[in-house]
Every structure is written in structure tokens, then in C-alpha cells.
Specification:
The chain is mainly alpha-helical. The chain is 39% helix and 6% strand.
């Protein structure tokens, strides 16, 4: 007679109570595991499966780079990688990476630009694919971690002068497209100077505590209550374009003050104006086409002309945005809650033509005279009346009447424009105003500034010789 060697399954009814409980728990755990695995398989392979980076907003946030190509990229055929690189080039322009990572135009993206902060000077790094001094040895995961979490390849905490606080909203797909484009750049072997930060701000590990109060990691989530156009604009403004980094005031830790988003702030002396929907202090009274024109050309006649950092943003970034993306940005800005700056009158509603030439004829000028300095240095382009030359033509010399820089309630931007000039090149025009900082002293710059604000702008906006001297030192 053969012996049955198969294992006899225990009868739960005959087991001790503790053993029955263990058996029941194991069975429950096994059942739950099978259920979880089935759900995971369904999510991964089911008909509705879709990567987060393939959600509609990702497809909508930026047009194909082919629509924005300016002929600087040469791609070999319509390969998937080629399209990824083109898209990455477009997104890199949206993010305006070149502005901070290029100190010398002969070394694009090689870093070295000093950025002044209240805690010292931060110098931007080399992001070309050089393996020794750039990011050539960074993996995609390293690059993603820096963009999303503010952590470098070696685990070092990055300073928020690099706006990872905004880039954290950018989708993985877009970050990898930017990375693909940067990989095509010419490697430049260059090590920028070290940061010059005071103790304890030179201790990177302290950024752990800064992040606790000022940083929320996570990708952009579309608002289902808003239109696709609005979501597209929100993704661009709050993420890649990182507009808040300049246009939102900061708290004592230099984090963004969320209670006053987009209400304006001062960076290195330059006033980034209020861009909320407030009709007096912000852009709520601007027409859509004026906002689009300003972003794409740097000029909105009767409103503003971009100079300083914003002029660079237009030249390096926003002029390349597609019409769809520009309209999306405007749609989002329209929804930004109005924040009053306390202005009684819009910046672009000041001024009247001057008649000082007639009044000065035959008179003897003594001392430093703002009107005389204006006529001698500025009237050739802006007319002695201040009405400009060329009306609203692309290459026109702008009117100082109804000009938001001249009509601002502080004179910093105007003084900085006189000091450093304007050099804004777009597809529409090459705009050049010479820098007078090397030819006129601080007293003369202050005199011209105060004459212009008194005659063509807000008469209450004045500047002292000492303030001009300080502005000269800012980077």
C-alpha cells in the first residue's frame, strides 16, 4: 500500500486560538497584497493609464519649439531627440537661463555673473556640458533634483538665487527637455569665482531651515475650474518664467511674501513694478494687446519701455514666446488679485511738454542745472519737449510723457537708466540709449533725474546725490 506523501492542509477549526489568528492575518495580508498588485497593474497597463507628464496642461503649457525657432539651432532631421532639443531650447528661453548663467557673451551659459543679495554676492555656476567645470557629469536625475529640490550633484544645498522654488513646478518632461538642449551646447572649460557670502550665510546646510519656511516642493497642478489658457499662463508665470522672483516682495528671510504676490519689489536697485490687476498701481488698466506688445517687443507706446533687467528679459526670453503663450500669460495676470501700491495716479498718466528752451534763452546758467543738462544730453533723442522722436515706430526714441519709468513714485529706475543706458535687441528693433554714468558725476545724474521727474513724471519722486552714488555700486 502506497503512503500518501502530500502535505495535509491544517484544519483551522482544530488549531489553537493564537495559531488561528496568525493564519487568518497571513491570509488577509496575502489577499490585500494581491488586490494592491492588481490595482497597480491596472494603473500601469489599463486603457486609462497616462503619465503625469502627458496630462493636457503639459501639452498646452508651451507651444512646439518649431513655432518659436529663431534659426539658431541646427537639427539633423525630424528625429524624436531633435524635437526634444528644439523644445528644450524654447523652454530654456522661457526660463531665461542665459540671463543669469552668462556673464561674458563669448562664454554663453558658462556662469560667472555676480548677483548681489542682502547676505553677500552669489556667483552663478557653469551649466555647459563641460565635464570638469560644468554639468557634463551630471545625470538626468542630478539635474532633475537641482531643478525640483534645490540640491546639487554632491548633495549640497543650492541658494534660492537659483529659482528652484519656481522650477519645482516644472514637469519632469520639460526639465528633461531643457537638459537635452543644454547637452548640445559647446562645453566651456571655465570655473566661475567663488561666492562671497558672510557667515553664517555661507553655510549651505542652513538652507534646510530656509526651505522649511519658504519652499514647497511639487509639480504644477492644473486648476479644473479654470480654462486651459489660464492654466497654461499659470504654469509659465509661476514656474518656468519665475515672474514672482522679481515682482513679489520678500520677507526678512528673503523668501517670497505670499500675501503680496506680484505687487512689485526692488532687486539690486531696480524696481520691478506691480503687475497685479490693480488699475492704478498695477496693469489692470492695460489692454491685452499692450501687455503682449510689451512682452514681445519691450515697448508699449503710451505705457512703458523695458529697460534694465526687464529689458534683458524681453531680449533674452519673452520676445521668443509664441502668441499663444503670450496670450496665456496675459490671461493669468488678469486674474491675479489686485494689490494697491498706494498710488493716487497711474505711473503712465504723468507729464506735460516742456518749454524750458524758450525760458533759458539769453540766461546765464550757474551751478548744476537739470534743465540745461537735459537739453545738452537728452534732447537730441527725446526732444527738448520730452515728447520723443519717431512716435510709436519700432525704433522710436520714446516719449518721457506717459512713461511708467518716469512716472514711478520712486526715481531709482530712471536714474539707473541714465547711469547704464539701454541696449535691447529684438526682432522688431535695436534700441540703444548710451550710458551716461561714465560722463556725468553723481550730482549731475541726480539733477537730470529730478528735472525729468518734475517735468514729465511724478514731482514727488526725487533722488539725492548720495542715492545715485549707491546705485552705481549695485550689481
Amino acid at each position: 500500500m502506497m503512503k500518501n506523501t502530500s502535505r495535509v492542509q491544517p484544519d483551522p477549526a482544530l488549531m489553537p486560538v493564537a495559531q488561528r489568528r496568525r493564519f487568518g492575518g497571513a491570509a488577509l495580508a496575502a489577499a490585500f497584497s494581491l488586490f494592491a498588485l492588481s490595482i497597480a497593474w491596472h494603473e500601469a497597463h489599463g486603457p486609462a493609464a497616462r503619465s503625469t507628464d502627458e496630462m493636457p496642461i503639459t501639452q498646452a503649457h508651451a507651444d512646439a519649439a518649431a513655432q518659436a525657432s529663431d534659426g539658431q539651432a541646427t537639427l539633423a532631421g525630424p528625429s524624436a531627440h531633435g524635437e526634444l532639443v528644439k523644445r528644450g531650447q524654447y523652454l530654456t528661453r522661457v526660463a531665461d537661463c542665459a540671463a543669469c548663467h552668462t556673464a561674458d557673451k563669448s562664454r554663453p551659459f558658462a556662469g560667472g555673473l555676480p548677483i548681489s543679495t542682502p547676505f553677500g554676492t552669489i556667483v552663478t555656476p557653469n551649466i555647459t556640458p563641460d565635464p570638469d567645470t560644468g554639468i557634463g557629469q551630471w545625470s538626468d536625475a542630478d539635474f532633475m533634483r537641482a531643478m525640483h529640490e534645490g540640491v546639487g550633484k554632491g548633495g549640497e544645498r543650492l541658494y534660492p538665487a537659483f529659482p528652484y522654488t519656481a522650477y519645482t513646478r516644472v514637469t519632469d518632461q520639460d526639465v528633461l527637455a531643457i537638459r537635452a538642449y543644454l547637452n548640445t551646447l559647446a562645453p566651456i572649460h571655465y570655473t566661475p569665482p567663488a561666492n562671497d557670502l558672510r557667515f553664517p550665510f555661507n553655510q549651505r546646510w542652513l538652507m534646510v531651515f530656509w526651505n522649511l519656511f519658504n519652499f514647497t516642493e511639487g509639480r504644477f497642478v492644473p486648476d479644473p475650474k479654470q480654462s486651459a489658457e489660464w492654466n497654461r499662463g499659470a504654469y509659465l508665470v509661476e514656474g518656468l518664467a519665475h515672474c514672482e522672483e522679481c515682482h513679489t516682495p520678500r520677507n526678512f528671510m528673503q523668501g517670497l511674501k505670499s500675501s503680496a504676490r506680484f505687487s512689485g519689489a526692488v532687486q539690486a536697485g531696480w524696481h520691478a513694478f506691480n503687475i497685479t490687476s490693480d488699475k492704478t498701481s498695477g496693469v489692470g488698466d492695460w489692454r491685452d494687446d499692450q501687455l503682449v506688445a510689451y512682452l514681445s517687443t519691450g515697448a508699449a507706446p503710451g505705457r512703458a519701455n523695458a529697460a534694465g533687467p526687464m529689458g534683458e528679459v524681453v531680449a533674452n526670453s519673452t520676445q521668443y514666446l509664441t502668441p499663444v503663450d503670450l496670450r496665456s500669460i496675459v490671461a493669468f495676470l488678469r486674474s491675479v488679485p489686485a494689490v494697491s501700491g498706494g498710488d493716487a495716479r497711474s505711473r503712465d498718466q504723468w507729464g506735460r511738454p516742456a518749454d524750458d528752451v524758450t525760458a533759458m534763452r539769453g540766461t546765464t546758467i550757474t551751478g548744476v542745472n537739470g534743465a540745461q543738462l537735459f537739453i545738452a544730453n537728452c534732447a537730441t533723442c527725446h526732444s527738448w519737449t520730452g515728447e520723443g522722436v519717431g512716435a510709436s515706430a519700432p525704433g522710436a526714441y520714446p516719449s518721457l510723457i506717459h512713461n511708467s519709468t518716469v512716472g514711478a513714485n520712486d526715481a531709482n529706475n530712471l536714474a539707473l537708466v541714465i547711469l547704464h543706458g539701454v541696449n535691447r535687441t529684438t526682432a522688431h528693433a535695436d534700441v540703444l540709449m548710451p550710458a551716461f554714468g561714465g560722463h556725468l558725476d553723481d550730482e549731475q545724474i541726480a539733477a537730470i533725474t529730478n528735472y525729468v521727474t518734475k517735468q514729465f513724471g511724478d514731482p514727488q519722486a526725487t533722488i539725492t546725490t548720495g542715492q545715485v552714488a549707491k546705485l552705481r555700486t549695485l550689481q
